[in-house]
Amino acid sequence: MGSHTRFVPTPRTLMGPGPSDVHPRVLAAMAQPTIGHLDPNFITLMDDIKALLRDAFQTSNALTLPVSAPGSAAMEAAFANLLEPGDKVIVCINGVFGMRMAENVKRMGGELVTVEDNWGQQVDPEKLRAALAANPDAKIVAFVHAETSTGVCSDAQALCAIAKEAGCLTIVDSVTGLGGVELRVDDWQIDVCYSGSQKCLSCPPGISLITYSEAAADRVKARNTPVQSWFLDLSLLMAYWEGEGARTYHHTAPVNALYGLHEALLMLHEEGLEHSWQRHRDMHELLVAGLEDLGLTMAVDARFRLPQLNVVQAPTGVDEGAVRKQLLADFNLEIGAGLGVYAGKFWRIGLMGYAARRENVTLCVNALSHCLPG
Amino acid sequence: MGSHTRFVPTPRTLMGPGPSDVHPRVLAAMAQPTIGHLDPNFITLMDDIKALLRDAFQTSNALTLPVSAPGSAAMEAAFANLLEPGDKVIVCINGVFGMRMAENVKRMGGELVTVEDNWGQQVDPEKLRAALAANPDAKIVAFVHAETSTGVCSDAQALCAIAKEAGCLTIVDSVTGLGGVELRVDDWQIDVCYSGSQKCLSCPPGISLITYSEAAADRVKARNTPVQSWFLDLSLLMAYWEGEGARTYHHTAPVNALYGLHEALLMLHEEGLEHSWQRHRDMHELLVAGLEDLGLTMAVDARFRLPQLNVVQAPTGVDEGAVRKQLLADFNLEIGAGLGVYAGKFWRIGLMGYAARRENVTLCVNALSHCLPG
Fold first, then answer.
1. I need a labelling partner for B35 at 20 to 30 A (CA). Which of A307, B94, B152, B279 fits?
2. Residues of A in contact with B266 (CB under 8 A)
């Protein structure tokens, strides 16, 4: 053993693809004393979280709950519960997280059909329509609403309408979407939607959020095979999250993380969902104007940019990694690197939740200006 | 939407089966500002956590790391990575968590052989020896070191020695054990050991800890089938936790929970592992003396009691649930209900980590005395 000392993080401004800046109210909520996961006091918190989550997702789904693990586990929960070996699943891919969906389907023994679009493009509804026509036995359509790797917002409403016409259940990844851009689970006919804590809700990472429609819950109940993951098995989780009065122990809930989630959802409720969407749009426009003044080019067409995740091309000849290092060293400002095919060429600048503020935009544009040549 | 207000938990003294009382230093550490999961600052934290975890587990295993989800996910990670469909696994069952292990093996397509002992008894090494003789093709032996449902400590060293003689890998659940009772991963030949944050480490629930021996890692590398869980796939996690210098993104680490874990591990290091074991024994003896003075009977033979989890029989004619309710209402004291076949008949009184203090023992014994008839 060497010597060990207390860890004191260097405070940063987080404008990457997540985690985003956490509001002090959320940090303070998380530091409250831990209570038991079956404490009657805690049960009231669980009920309020479910109600606030339904509002955030714009759904009346009874099965709307946190997942005690990060967004990738929520993705896994969606597929693990709905999919049985041999089921045909259409996954639309236009970035890293669509690829991760496809990987999940393969590992779970699903029959995978992919619909591919280029990075930086939306999922093309016509391609999905064609894939459904060619695969009338498909049971599930899955796609990413807000692609964190490219900053593209796909038309979830149109895609789900096409999928539902074909009788499919829909799984929609809105890890980066929820709270930052319009998302209407019920109106858009989404059967399973999941999101993360550390994006536009401005919570620390570690937990995620999921909602299941009645049709999705029926599919889970009608399964012929058990869900391979005991931890993510919805039928077992229901007894803890949906029980009347006393709850049945499944796993120990992440009590303090849920204090933080509740506070973040409460703040979103206080601001109002549509006001939050508008704030993200406003800050996005300010940021884009500033970046374009610096001569930088946005990667994504203005018609389908995610306001909360701005993908920007690094100028030719500029070492993008060196710029990020300097931003961190000189300004304690974190922006994100490109992911996948965007690595080394693009930056990802997040304006998520508490980070979507005028002071952050100003800092980011001027710090970048300082770090760019010329 | 109804009205929503900030959640303020009623402070409790947590003496159930976990979560245990969280030390204020851990709560304060968790409330520090969130930084990025790829921040160079965070990488130093990860390295220090790994070093401290190795000390806590008494292992030199390179693959010693936190899991970004509660203990049940760590259990699942252990089986999901080591087991391939058709593999024969011997699971020793003497309580709820052995049953959960068996459930995991079944869901993953393993061929399950069980060795059963009564609740309140240790896993019997001779039964394991007989099962191994009858099943020479078994690949894995799994059992619970510290059974949270019964308060029994099994002889992990003896059981692993028998399993290794038969050429099996060993999976050992020490969710409630780590930090509270002797546990020596390397000396005892444990191949995979996992634990929880919310027991004797006195962290909030939500993350867990796991260590894999080289033999276990070799088994993972030699797999013919992919791990069904992308989220728990060790081969992918290694690139984030074990990379040299820059780390490869897998999922977003639970940054603030890891601040808390680091502080808790640091506190264990400051106290010294053997001192912590001794403190748990000392407080256990005080508690048992107090409970016996009240005329209460311990459920488990003194030779194999877990000091940190004391299972006590509710006196005949006493409504055990009413007593727990009164303890919570009048003293803000949480003790645990019986689980499984112990439900309605036993209490589980935890003395875990920060909760293993003289003031807690005194409060518990005297509050119980107040709530019991006569």
1. A307
2. 4-6
Give me the pLDDT at residue B1, please: 46
Residues of B within 8 A of A33 (CB-CB) are: 9, 11-12, 22, 27
- How far is A353 from A279, CA to CA, in rounded Å? 9
> Structurally, what CATH architecture does the domain formed by A24-269 represent?
3-Layer(aba) Sandwich (3.40)
Chain B residues touching residue A227 (CB < 8 angstroms): 107
* CB spacing of A68 vs B69 below 8 angstroms: yes
Partner residue opposite A39 with nearest CB, options B33, B40, B334: B334
Please give the single-letter amino acid code of residue A272: G
Considering only alpha carbons, which residue of chain B is nearest residue A80? B229
Tell me the CA end-to-end span of chain A in Å, nearest whole number.
49
Q: Report chain B residues whose CB lies below 8 A from the CB of A21.
A: 34
Domain ranges across chain A: 13-18+273-371, 24-269
Taking CA–CA distances from A26, the nearest residue in chain B reads: B31
CB contact under 8 A, B6 and A29: yes
- pLDDT exceeds 90 at position B243: no
Smallest Cβ distance to B36: which of A16, A33, A252? A16
Q: Please report residues of A whose CB lies closer than 8 A to that of B19.
A: 34-37, 252, 255
Q: What is the pLDDT of residue A242?
A: 78
* CATH code of the domain made up of B25-269: 3.40.640.10
Find out whether B189 and B61 touch, Cβ atoms under 8 Å: no
Q: What is the rounded average pLDDT for all residues in chain B?
A: 96
Q: Tell me the Ramachandran region of residue A18: left when phi exceeds 0, alpha when psi lies from -120 to 50, beta otherwise.
A: left
What is the CATH superfamily name and number for domain B13-18+273-371? Aspartate Aminotransferase, domain 1 (3.90.1150.10)
Partner residue facing A206 (CB), from B40, B68, B107: B68
CA–centroid distance for A142 within its chain: 14
A241-250 average pLDDT score? 73
pLDDT at residue B216 in the model: 97
Q: Please give the Cα distance from B350 to A165 (Å, whole number).
A: 55
Q: What is the mean pLDDT of chain A?
A: 96
Which residues from chain A sit within 8 angstroms of residue B7, using beta carbons?
29, 44-45, 48, 259, 262-263
Task: Check whether A374 has a pLDDT greater than 90.
Answer: no
B53, B231, B258: best to mutate for the A interface, most A CBs within 10 A: B231
> Which residue from A4, A19, A44 is facing B48, i.e. has the nearest CB?
A4
Contact call for residues A62 and A242 (beta carbons, < 8 A): yes
